[in-house]
UniProtKB/TrEMBL annotation:
GO terms for cellular component: cytoplasm; microtubule cytoskeleton. One of its GO terms (molecular function) is protein-glycine ligase activity, initiating. It is found in: Cytoplasm. It holds the Pfam family TTL. It comes from Phytophthora infestans (strain T30-4). The keyword Lipoprotein does not apply. PROSITE patterns: TTL (PS51221). InterPro entries: TTL/TTLL_fam (IPR004344), TTLL_monoglycylase (IPR051437). Keywords: ATP-binding, Cytoplasm, Ligase, Nucleotide-binding. This is Tubulin-tyrosine ligase family, putative.
Length: 366
């Protein structure tokens, strides 16, 4: 008997692959009699799925793509696990929680103060009294408009201690990224360089969520995350991200997860310049694959004389995916023969430290 599948038009590769194998496509995604359904999470009627039907999601997997929900799961763990989380994710705050807004204010000024000290050491720049005061309060040191040799040694000592204690020591500066938790594919993203600007942006509204529902300022759940100001740049100083596919096929008796052996890079359209904060083409990567992970690996090997990809970047990506799934898997439920196909997007900074750019997406990239 010919097998039947239902799929949205936005998954042409899936449709083509199934039809090439002799499957017959049903005219409507909502048809209840199918062998396989490949569609958005919101279009699956879980109560109608039979034990033998295959669906392209696990129940409650929306937790993985809703940033506020996953954030709570990640930081609900013990102190040791939270330290691991800080090594994998830029500092992130859910502004629907009043205490998170207060924490954001502290970490904003902390990041700003550390950046002042780092810039002082790198370039010997002058800083004004207000910056000096913030640096004194937040990193327990003092600098003046002209850094003497003694003051320089003091700054170096404080920064060395911070680097040892803070997993995100190098992720500092003034720029933060604001993103509505319920929007995807870059919609609603704004880069801010002042706390007042963050306050203003996160009090506004005017977008539709991923279900097409108009949201008001009271309904929007804003996530604010530290922006990676010094990313690794390639292709004429362009920023990029790495898309890695992960497949969850079983939850019981033991979770079964597959890591696709190849990933790919997607570059921004324009040269990276931090001064152009509102230029989306500078900061948001293209949705089309441009480099394979093999090409990236070869480029790094030629530049550094060692396998940076295999020795440094890839293990960090593995660890980040494992932490994310460990936090979310207990919330997932297999209905029928459900599975989950996730795309993790990673950024790499100038120190070859990989960080999860955004939380796992379920959308195709090309």
């Amino acid at each position: 008997m010919q097998q039947l599948f239902a799929a949205d038009d936005k998954f042409p590769s899936v449709v083509a692959a199934l039809e090439a194998r002799g499957w017959r496509r049903l005219p409507f995604v909502g048809c209840p009699k199918f062998d396989l359904k490949w569609t958005n999470y919101s279009k699956i009627s879980w109560w109608r799925v039979t034990p033998q039907q295959i669906v392209s999601h696990l129940q409650n997997s929306i937790t993985l793509s809703q940033k506020d929900q996953l954030l709570r799961l990640l930081y609900a763990r013990g102190n040791e696990e939270q330290i691991q989380v800080d090594r994998c994710f830029p500092r992130t705050f859910d502004l629907s929680q009043p205490q998170e807004r207060r924490l954001l204010k502290f970490w904003f000024h902390y990041s700003q103060a550390v950046a002042v000290l780092l810039e002082t050491l790198r370039n010997g720049v002058k800083v004004d009294a207000e910056q000096v005061e913030a640096a004194i309060k937040l990193v327990k040191t003092a600098i003046s408009n002209h850094t003497t040799a003694e003051e320089r040694r003091e700054i170096e000592g404080v920064l060395s201690e911070l680097e040892r204690r803070d997993p995100q020591f190098h992720v500092v500066g003034n720029v933060w990224i604001c993103k509505p938790s319920n929007l995807s594919q870059g919609r609603g993203i704004v880069l801010c360089s002042s706390f007042e600007e963050i306050e203003k942006i996160t009090s506004s509204s005017g977008e539709q969520d991923d279900q097409g529902t108009e949201t008001t300022s009271s309904q929007i759940k804003w996530i604010v995350q530290k922006y990676i100001e010094r990313p690794l740049l390639l292709q004429n100083d362009r920023k990029f991200d790495i898309r890695q596919w992960v497949l969850i096929t079983e939850l019981e008796p033991k979770p079964t997860v597959f890591w696709f052996y190849k990933s790919y890079l997607r570059f921004c359209s324009r040269r990276y310049e931090l001064t152009r904060l509102q230029d989306r083409f500078t900061h948001l990567s293209n949705f089309s694959p441009m480099w394979s992970s093999d090409q990236f690996r070869d480029t790094l090997r030629q530049k550094h004389g060692r396998d940076v990809w295999e020795e440094t970047i890839l293990p960090q990506m593995h660890n980040t995916a494992r932490l994310t799934l460990d936090a979310a898997l207990p919330k997932l439920k297999a209905v029928g023969r459900g599975f989950e196909w996730l795309g993790f997007d990673f950024l790499v900074d100038e120190h070859h430290h990989s960080l999860l750019n955004w939380y796992p997406r379920l959308q195709p990239t090309c």
